[in-house]
Structure formats: C-alpha cells, structure tokens
C-alpha cells in the first residue's frame, strides 16, 4: 500500500511549494483536499511530480496565493492495496481587513468608504458637477465677449 514519506510546509521558491514524497507499488494515484474538500487544479494551484521507481516526488504549487488559500492541505495516495493520507497547515497571507470588535456584542467588518457607493447618489453628484462646469464655461464666454466689445473704447474719447 502507499506510504507518505514526506510532506513539508509551504516554501517560496519561484512559486509556493508544498513538497511531498510518496512510496507505493503499484504507483498510487494522488489527489489533494483543502479543508476537507476536493482541491481542483487551476492556473493558480497545480501539482507537479515525477515517478522514480516506486517513489513519487513533487510539489503542490501555488502561484501568488492569498489568504483564501490558507488552511489544511491533505494529500491522499491510493492504489489497489490501500490508501494513505497526511495533512499539513498552509498559511500564505493574513486577511487584509481583520474584524473590528468594540463595545458592541456583534462584530463589525471594516469596509472602506469609497467602496460604499449608492448609484443614484453618485449619478446625482456627477450631474451637479457637469452642470456647474457648463455654467462656468458659459460665464467665461460671456465675460470674454463683454471685455472684447466694451474694452476697446478708450475713456474720454482720447485716441492713441
């Protein structure tokens, strides 16, 4: 039956890597669980390994993991003679906005003010800004015309 020889905590090389080595004859099939759920491979998380005799060595690779990737990772090796599994904790990043607890009995989550936008209020503010800009442009044009029309005449009829 398969035997898990090593399972190491994540280390950063080019990508983050959870290194493993599994022994088994016949060669076991390998899959991973994240917090007890089957882990699907994506462009962010993938497994690479090579078979050398009865030993499979490789890495579960993470390309720029975030706090969503924190948790327990379990490797499961299975062949016709049995199965083996082993779990390790993977911690990559802290949560960016930790929960804030205060005098109240409930927990409040911090949300930046610029993310809380009401679409009606925002469109009203934009229309006010556009209206003020248009009024300023019209006022400048009228002032320019008045200066050109009345500013050319010299006072007291004097020329030169």
UniProtKB/TrEMBL annotation:
Alphabetized UniProt keyword annotations: Membrane, Transmembrane, Transmembrane helix
GO molecular function, one term: neurotrophin receptor activity
InterPro entries to which the protein is assigned, alphabetical: Ig-like_dom_sf, Ig-like_fold, Ig_I-set, NTRK3
Domain Immunoglobulin I-set: from-to ranges: 21-88
Keyword check for Zinc: no
Keyword Transmembrane: yes
Cited Pfam families: I-set
Name recorded for this polypeptide: NTRK3 factor
Species of the source: Helopsaltes ochotensis (Middendorff's grasshopper-warbler)
């Amino acid at each position: 039956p398969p035997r898990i020889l090593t399972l190491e905590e994540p280390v950063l090389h080019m990508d983050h890597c959870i290194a493993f080595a599994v022994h088994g004859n016949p060669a076991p099939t390998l899959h991973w669980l994240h917090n007890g759920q089957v882990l699907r491979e994506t462009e962010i998380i993938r497994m690479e390994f090579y078979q050398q005799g009865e030993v499979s060595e490789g890495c579960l690779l993470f390309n720029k993991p975030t706090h969503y990737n924190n948790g327990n990772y379990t490797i499961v090796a299975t062949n016709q003679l049995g199965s083996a599994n082993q779990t390790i904790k993977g911690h990559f990043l802290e949560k960016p906005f930790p929960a804030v607890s205060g005098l109240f009995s409930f927990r409040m989550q911090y949300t930046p003010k610029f993310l809380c936008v009401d679409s009606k209020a925002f469109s009203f503010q934009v229309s006010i800004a556009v209206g003020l800009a248009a009024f300023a442009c019209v006022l400048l044009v009228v002032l320019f015309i008045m200066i050109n029309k009345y500013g050319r005449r010299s006072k007291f009829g004097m020329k030169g």
